Amino acid sequence: MAYNALKGIQDILPPDIHIWQKIESVAREVFQRYGFQEIRIPIIESTDIFIRSIGETTDIVEKEMYTFPDKAGRSITMRPEGTAPAVRCYVEHHLYNLPSPQKFFYSGPMFRYERPQKGRFRQFYQIGVEAFGVSQPSIDAEVIAMLKNLLEGIGLKEVNFELNSIGCEKCRPDYKNALLKFFENRLSDFCPDCQRRYNTNPLRILDCKVERCIELRKGAPAVAEHLCGNCREHFNELVSRLDLMKISYTLNPNLVRGLDYYTRTTFEVTSEHLGAQKAVAAGGRYDRLVEEFGGPSTPAIGFAIGMERIATLLKEIWSDEHPSPKIFIATLGKEAEIEGFRIAEDLRAKGFWVEPNYAGASLKSQLRKADRIGAELALIIGENELKAGKIQWKNLKKGEQGEVEIKDIQAILTDNIQPSNP
Ligand code: HAM
């Protein structure tokens, strides 16, 4: 019986894992400079948390959640995203009592029962950030700048920042009415999903990917014309900060996002190298969510990057960079193998990645293996060398070779290789 991973769920193996680790380490370093600290939030939560925040009529809640009853009959959901759990955590632990702002990041798997395709998985990984407690647009600009620095830090330059404001609870009703009026006469021509959205969530019609709907919504009222004074001021200030930092962006009035908790700023980073699933990161402001979760009125903003999509883009840039062993120890005979074992431990203690020869094989095949796994230096111990207290060495990259007393190994290491990174 052969088993496979579930549909839309994949294993991440070396050498890809090295790309993931590098993204994570650059992200940590960038977040640290901006004062974002790590939190570890659970993978499962009470289902209500997601319904309440993401919204009952969104695709995620209607169709995509992995929801099941636990043994006591409670409805549990495997997190489809991290913002709702982060807000639950912020409110549950009264983190609003700490000096504001509180800035966090998290990483880990998310789960959405979507139709799998290139770049779209049912289990996928995000690194997300959330900043609580600042209503000023300076933090919107700061978070976007941090995202840009993160993407540049990992070598991604050809990406587009798309930006919008979807207003607040004051101006959105007016905008919704304008949209309803515009769609009213042509509603029967829209796809069944949009017809449903007309009643439940008309803003989402702007986000529909069906060609016919894209055509039909041309000329729809733009949200920018319906922002209240405060929202407009907020957006203008954000845009001027981005200009100040020379961060280029495209204004996209259709960027409404598939999650209901957003207010004001929304943004998405896309890449033209990815096909249909081209968003590598996305986020926005959600000024009402903390209060809706029972906390004090607290503005907040965040984003999440999609690891699989970023790793796909980076694979081309970093294809040759995966780590390989520094030293291979080839041995002939039991006694030499034991001495090789001892030397391997000694060199590992000095920080080198050492691969020994585990099973007896000819010297030729051991050296072939050393080459295949990308080792830089082979140390060769045979019975004669052992008796003489010596070791042969071969630089597998340059072809140079020689002999050295075992006690003097350090000298050839210094000449031939650098210690591995921890
Ligand atoms: P989101 O747009 O749903 O936002 O997801 C963020 C990113 O996760 C997407 O841009 C994409 O790169 C990746 N992603 C989403 N779904 C999939 C999938 N099925 N397969 C692969 N990658 C995927 C959020 O999740 C918000 N919580 C972001 C946020 C944080 N807003 C404020 N704070």
Describe this structure in words.
This protein has 422 residues and is of the alpha+beta class. The chain is 38% helix and 21% strand. It folds into 2 domains: 16-171 and 227-314, Bira Bifunctional Protein, Domain 2 (BirA Bifunctional Protein, domain 2, 2-Layer Sandwich); 327-416, 3-Layer(aba) Sandwich (Rossmann fold). Strand 9 and strand 10 form a beta hairpin. Helix 1 crosses helix 11 and helix 5 runs parallel beside helix 9 (229-244). It is elongated and about 90 Å long. The two termini are 40 Å apart. It binds histidyl-adenosine monophosphate (HAM). Histidyl-adenosine monophosphate (HAM) is lined by residues 81-83, 112, 114, 120-121, 124, 126, 128, 130, 279-284, 302-304, 306, 308-309. Histidyl-adenosine monophosphate binds at residues 81-83, 112, 114, 120-121, 124, 126, 128, 130, 279-284, 302-304, 306, 308-309.
